[in-house]
Amino acid sequence: MPILTISGLRKSFGTTEVLKGIDLSVSNRELVFIIGPSGSGKSTLLRCINRLEEPTGGGIAFDGVEVTDRSTDLNALRRSMGMVFQSFNLYPHMTALANVTLALRKVLKKSRDEADAIGREALAKVGLSDKTASYPSELSGGQQQRVAIARALALDPKIVLFDEPTSALDPELVGSVLAVMRDLKAGGMTMLVVSHELRFARDAADRVIFMDQGHIVEEGPPSAIFNEPREARTRAFVAGLLR
Known about the structure:
With 243 residues, this protein is an alpha/beta fold. It has helices spanning 42-49, 74-80, 96-106, 112-125, 141-154, 171-186, 198-204, 222-227, 232-242; strands at residues 4-13, 16-26, 31-35, 57-62, 65-66, 81-84, 159-163, 191-194, 207-212, 215-220.
């Protein structure tokens, strides 16, 4: 059974329909990449999955929970769904370790010692064992994004949603973040990724989804989407980015 099932998902902002009936499933341990032009609904889809945006219609089931049910405990849901944003959203007055452990202490009510142990382990997973006492201003953009990933991992999520995790980074810093995502994939983390990093998708993804104008136009293994796309819109988009 898929860990995430999306059925007929719709989302409108006023009279503008951004998602027009999305059907998508994600299996446990799968890395699914969502690509498509700006304005195609990719980020809105991610934000509907954990109800940062309220869907207009359709259903979302995650790990046996009906996400769109009004009685769903959103705090519990979001602890099982890590989310990494384009902007790092770190507290500038707190160290890397304090940023990672804040939710552990305030939401899960763990002791400082227990939270710090979990936080140090999460920072080690992203290659930042030596930066626990550093403040965001002392870190590169890539390091700040890796702290944000560690913050998501510290809650032991069952899936991590990545919304353009490298788009705010200088090109030379992108590789360090993609390396962490590659390690997470190797460790069996389920991931749904919105990104323009097509070469990474080609190398690491299990499946690639191409979205345009609120629809899923095409999906399949990376070899099919990048080498032999069926749809003209997919061919044009991929050709433009892989030139």
